[in-house]
Amino acid sequence: MNTPRIVHCKKLKQDLPALPFKPFPNEFGQLLYDNISLQAWQMWIRESPKFINTYRLDLQSKEGRDFLEKQMRIFFGFEEGELADTAFVPREG
């Protein structure tokens, strides 16, 4: 049985199992692979549709991908700033 790779997660500030893959085939993908845990990535996967839906992002366009990458950089703590507001309203009850 393979032992999962461990990273010190920049988002969650603890040593946790790492991503088993690079999420993007570029420098940012490597940054995530080296510094973000699988748990933090799963948090982002639940969060990202709020941005995609609110801003009707076209992830086929450079503008859409750049916007989402900026939100990711802020979410994971690679960049200072505030996350963009979303139209998400939690369900009550």
Architecture overview:
InterPro entries: Fe_traffick_prot_YggX (IPR007457), Fe_traffick_prot_YggX_sf (IPR036766). This is Fe-S cluster biosynthesis and repair protein YggX. GO terms for molecular function: iron ion binding. Keywords: Iron. It comes from Nannocystis exedens. This protein is mostly helical and 93 residues long. It has a domain at 26-75. It contains 3 helices and 2 strands; from the N terminus they run ββααα. It has helices spanning 27-35, 38-54, 62-76; strands at 6-8, 15-17. A two-stranded antiparallel ribbon has the order 1-2. Strand 1 (6-8) and strand 2 (15-17) form a beta hairpin. Helix 2 (38-54) packs across helix 3 (62-76). The longest helix has 17 residues, at 38-54. 14% of the residues are buried. The mean pLDDT is 93.
Terminal CA distance: 42 Å
Q: Taking strands numbered 1, 2, ... along the chain, how are they ordered across the largest sheet?
A: 1-2
Low-confidence spans: pLDDT under 50, at least 5 residues? none
| Average predicted local confidence, pLDDT | 93
β-sheet strand percentage: 5-15%
Structural class: mainly alpha
Task: Sum up the overall morphology in one term.
Answer: globular
Described by strand count, sense and barrel closure, the largest sheet is: 2 strands, antiparallel
Calculate Rg over CA atoms: 14 Å
Give a brief outline of the structure.
This protein is 44% helix and 6% strand.
Secondary structure layout:
Blueprint: E1 6-8, E2 15-17, H1 27-35, H2 38-54, H3 62-76
Antiparallel strand pairs: 1-2
Helix pairs in contact: 2-3
Organism: Nannocystis exedens
GO molecular function: iron ion binding
Keywords: Iron
